[in-house]
Amino acid sequence: MSPTSRSAAGPELMLPGLRAVYAAYVREAAALPSLPGPLEAEAWTSARLGDLESAAPHAQGRRAALGDLITCLAADGGPGSRAFLRALAAIGPAEGRRAAGRAADRLGDVPAAPWESALGQVVLGPVWLIQEGPLDGDRLICEFRHRDAGPHALAVRLSPGGAPVEIVLVGDVPALMAAARQAMRAELCTVQPYAPETAGHRLRAALRPDGPEPMPTACYPALALARHRAAVLP
After folding, report:
1. Contact residues for 24 (Cβ-Cβ < 8 A; gap 6+)
2. Each residue's pLDDT tens digit, 193-221
3. Residue 203 near residue 140, CB atoms below 8 Å
4. Spatial strand order in the sheet of 151-158
């Protein structure tokens, strides 16, 4: 294939059959810089990564799709693609962060989203353990905060065997904890402070890509963000 025909068809990809999927992500990313803050951008990015990972037949396919996506975003070169690349560099899979960051660096003349520098930059707050019964497993609530922003929380329910059952990103942390304490008063659950080190160990083990149990479909949208937050835990 000549360079001209290659350019007309778009960048060379490892999985060309997914070209339409990547193109759809590039189009959707045009709205990314208009999101109100880094948390919304991280959640948006996590959902797209979850789609790719849930559809990948194996780890090699997941890595190839991630590499192709970075290639397509770099080729587009618009503000939305720059924002997507920065989000991938901040919270995406470890094997793609450096490539995404380098691709974003090459778009230095493209306008940056106002929250770009805050992506992935969070500090840890309180950590809680909620237990509803021996057959329901544990729910770990880990609070985080971006600079100049209110708190948000990662809520992960683990099975008795330690596998993830539910992953939820919580924006209204006070409402979540108020509901949990109300349930505790009704003797429906227990709520107690939890050691961040223990929470980090349990979450990193539960969320790794090669876990012993299949990941529930409902967990994928928040999975990349959950892995990033688990890595912040000590």
Report:
1. none
2. 999 999 999 999 999 988 767 889 999 99
3. yes
4. 164-170, 151-158, 138-146, 122-131, 190-193
Query: What does the alpha-carbon distance between residue 105 and residue 176 come to, in Å, rounded to a whole number?
Result: 39
* Each residue's pLDDT tens digit, 87-136: 999 999 999 999 999 999 999 999 999 999 999 999 999 999 999 876 67
Backbone angles phi, psi at 81, to 5 degrees: -65, -40
Amino acid identity, residue 85? L
pTM over 0.85: yes
Give the separation between CA 23 and CA 44, rounded to whole angstroms.
16
DSSP assignment of the chain, as one string? --HHHHHHH-S--SSGGGHHHHHHHHHHHTTGGGSSSHHHHHHHHHHHHHHHHHH-SSHHHHHHHHHHHHHHHHHH-SHHHHHHHHHHHHHS-HHHHHHHHHHHHTTTTSPPPTTGGGTT-EEEEEEEEEE--TTT-EEEEEEEEETTS-EEEEEEEE-TTS-EEEEEEES-HHHHHHHHHHHHHTTS-EEEE--HHHHHHHHHHHH-TT-SSPPPGGGGGGHHHHHHHHHH--
Encoded tokens for 143 = 């609070």
User: Token digits for 153?
Assistant: 């929380």
Place of tokens 């057959």: 135
Cα 1 to chain centroid, rounded: 37
Q: What is the pLDDT of residues 154-182, one digit of tens each?
A: 999 999 889 999 999 999 999 999 998 89
